[in-house]
Description:
alpha/beta; Rossmann fold; 2 domains; 12 helices
Amino acid sequence: MDSKNIQQLNFENIDSNPISNSSIIINKNRFLDVLKEIVVQKDINIVKKKVFNIKDILTQFKPDNLGLLNNDIDGDTISFRKDILETELHQVLESQTLERAIYYLNRLEKSIQKFKTNKINDINLHRWKEYDDIITDSLWILNKRDNSGAHLAWYWGNFIPQIPNQLMRRFTKKGNWVLDTFAGSGTTLIECRKLGRNGIGIELNQEVSALSEKLIEKEKNKYNVVSDLVVGDSRIVDLKLILNKYNISKVQLIIMHPPYFDIIKFSDNEDDLSNSKDVDTFLKNFGEVVDNTKPYLEKGRYLALVIGDKYSKGEWIPLGFYCMQEVLKRDFLLKSIIVKNFDETRGKRNQVDLWRYRALVGGFYIFKHEYIMLFQKK
């Protein structure tokens, strides 16, 4: 089969067989042997012919004359996402030179044999294409809240689970420790259980903490991680004492989702940030939370701040950027500012037309976003 015919068959298969996200279980050792036989070839046409045969077996369910799918139940196997594997094989078939085809084959072989991560997460960089559900853009459009598992949207200040989920998958490894300084309904600690991270939450409101604790316990703890919800003021709570219980001195990620000043009153407690008498007092109190927690964040690791702005007497108050400055004063490095959408809040539920009317009359724009600001400890 010449190169032209191989290319034609390749494109015909793309048109007639839509890509699937299902997984393929492959005999690892046999697959590696087959790849090693191909990369020593000196003719690009032979290389493409052999790769085309592999693609037919693995993605088009043609007869397995290479034994790639004949797996012993106790044998060494490897799982691939079908669409990703098909893309990798397409790159070989579309290569214009032998050198480029061999490069792609060597890269595929490496992704099977080696596992490459960095210091702060478990993402296998040799198979990075399989993590397309991890967001890397600075604009997050999340259409609805994840209500799976123990998550419930009962709390006025709760944030959607996708936020801690994304942050922990990017900035922690399994078994790492995550501190949430405004634990609220326990969203972060529930996600910690799902992802195998140890979680410590600080919540000022004892009644809220009691309800959240019950929710957290409903989430299966399949990784046997710690879920510790502490009632206290994050400005002064003794974190050293809490961490000593678990024989650790540092956490690897801090998540802060404070009140957006006085937009929602969370309690009658005068220590509640939502009861601060003015913006300056709010920022002072918020800064004290950063001061109290920073010593317990491992150097080089991340603090994530989830915050929005507010209106007051017809004026836009850039609360998010004021809080950003408070963190930066404390020797952090700003890594990213993410803008996340929200279409509806509990305070504006079923009032879309009213708020649109108010915006037209008042000459302002309706809040449809909040910020996720990422800082790295120097």
